[in-house]
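Reminder to self: tokens first, then the designed residues, so the page reads top to bottom the way the pipeline ran.
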């Protein structure tokens, strides 16, 4: 990352949840020290980047529009949308040609957007998933993943180079990558914020909800039912502005929390309850939180693998979504 100087850089993350956007925040701050940075946004993450980088130029790019199902596992739902994903890849690649010319782009940085590379630029792909974990087609899925990755000039992996230290386990194994791979270390958006917010009361549980609907709402409803009669002090960060019905007055509700506020909430919580999304795990690791209850999104094999990896490596407690009533 340090060798990028005096460049005009276009960076754009996948808008599948907010994880890809949040981990780009510290990267953008580092790049801004010696470069001009333009951000590719969608309606999903527009507000997020306006909040963090109000003065930077932003260009709209197509949304992948990934949708989950109440009944189908995530991997099967994604497979059913693969033709749509490929159409977006072609669309963003065509748009990038125009962006590169009109803005004299030198470097394109894509966080898991497969179509953001151009023959006129250096192209960097950010991912922690060099290997895909899937029920019965891991080898085939990894082959497709590598085919897209190898269209880029090099790969940045937001994890440790030493395999025994990796937060993402075997997902970031680079053995089959034929382009340069740089392990840039875990990237937490919370690393750039000082605790300049007023002290807050400690909570017994901090619930951090995120991810694609309808699974976000399903987990929220399950957790609210679980804690309906609890006398514990609970803070719920919803990741949504939809209407909510709350019966327990011990639960404090925040629709969205970013930056110093989120950092403060995490540091002042005894136990964190959240999905096992990689960006969230990087934040919790950065803040040295040890009491974790991870609930992977049903059928999202990456989260299921990460939850198990963190159970074995970091002693996290792991529950399936339909096992919530079992933890105390």
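Designed residues (328 positions):
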């Amino acid at each position: 990352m340090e060798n990028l100087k005096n460049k005009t850089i276009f960076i754009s993350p996948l808008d599948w949840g907010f994880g890809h956007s949040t981990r780009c925040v510290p990267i953008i701050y580092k790049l801004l020290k010696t470069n001009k940075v333009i951000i590719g946004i969608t309606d999903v993450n527009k507000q997020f980047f306006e909040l963090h980088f109000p003065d930077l130029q932003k260009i709209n790019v197509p949304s992948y529009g990934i949708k989950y199902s109440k009944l189908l596992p995530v991997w099967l739902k994604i497979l059913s949308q693969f033709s749509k994903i490929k159409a977006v890849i072609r669309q963003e690649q065509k748009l990038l040609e125009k962006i590169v010319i009109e803005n004299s782009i030198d470097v394109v940085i894509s966080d898991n957007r497969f179509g953001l590379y151009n023959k006129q630029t250096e192209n960097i792909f950010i991912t922690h998933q060099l290997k895909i974990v899937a029920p019965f087609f891991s080898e085939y899925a990894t082959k497709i993943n590598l085919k897209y990755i190898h269209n880029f000039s090099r790969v940045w992996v937001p994890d440790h180079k030493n395999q025994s230290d990796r937060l993402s386990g075997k997902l970031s194994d680079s053995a089959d990558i034929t382009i340069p791979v740089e392990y840039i270390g875990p990237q937490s958006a919370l690393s750039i914020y000082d605790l300049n917010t007023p002290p807050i009361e400690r909570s017994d549980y901090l619930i951090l909800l995120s991810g694609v609907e309808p699974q976000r709402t399903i987990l929220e409803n399950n957790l609210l039912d679980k804690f309906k009669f609890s006398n514990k002090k609970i803070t719920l960060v919803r990741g949504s502005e939809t209407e909510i019905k709350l019966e327990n007055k011990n639960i404090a509700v925040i629709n969205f929390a970013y930056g110093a506020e989120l950092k403060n909430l995490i540091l002042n919580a005894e136990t964190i309850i959240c999905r096992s999304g990689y960006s969230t795990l990087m934040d919790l690791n950065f803040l040295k939180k040890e009491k974790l209850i991870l609930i992977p999104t049903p059928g999202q094999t990456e989260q299921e693998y990460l939850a198990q990896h963190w159970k074995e490596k970091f002693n996290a407690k792991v529950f399936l979504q339909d096992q919530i009533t079992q933890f105390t």
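The chain has two domains: 8-191, 195-322.
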